[in-house]
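> @MW can you paste both from yesterday?
MW: sure, first one:
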Amino acid sequence: MKLKVLDAELTICQVADAADIDLKAGLCFIGKTDEELSLVCETEAAPARTLARSDGWRAFRIEGVLDFSLVGILARISAILAARNIGIFAVSTFNTDYILVKKENLDRALEALEKEGYEVN
């Protein structure tokens, strides 16, 4: 399975108002529940007003379009990284999954995944 490393540094944050989110900026994931409005975005595009914020994330994605019938893809990646004490923040889209790790763990995460047979670009 191929993984593609994204270039941008990312921020994960909670925002009070969707109007603060720049939808024209690069990568942007929004999650809204009855309890919160969360945003993952490139750090330079993070809103000035946030309720909580965590900077210093990097991401990679599983290349290609994943069929909904596939089972265990994210579970396997998270298990490999958990065994090396690397925490993740995962985001799924219609096409694929994105896995975020703190930037200081990116190289270790990619090395671990390569040792388990993943191809990293």
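MW: second:
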Amino acid sequence: MIGFLIALLSGALMSVQGVFNTQVTKGSSIWVANVFVQLTALLICLGAWFATDRTSFGTLMKIEPKYMLLGGVIGAFITYTVIKGMEMLGPAKAVMLIVISQLIIAYLIEVIGLFGVEKQPLSMRKVIGMCVAIVGIVVFKWE
């Protein structure tokens, strides 16, 4: 149950962050906003690490495969694309498309077994669920 609540909180925070970042971009530029977002995230993470964990950063060099260390690079492009998506489509439409994209890609990762994720069998029930979500976007966007 706690994982369910954390996932809901994550989605809510991502939506609010996207709106905030889009507004910051209007007063600066997309890359200035992105640097600010990543810098403030770094400061919060360093503070949390200092207060709670203190695991050596050297452990990162033991991570295999090395491409798994690209999460921060991907994060910079996530921030960029969320800002642009919200700017061009508005928060509701952008977030719906972002969530559907996340769902489809995450399911493909599970079905194919990419990036060290345990391979799962294809489930028609889940495919139908994704199709229903896509139909929901079409209905939501319908004017």
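> thanks! The two ends are 37 Å apart (CA to CA).
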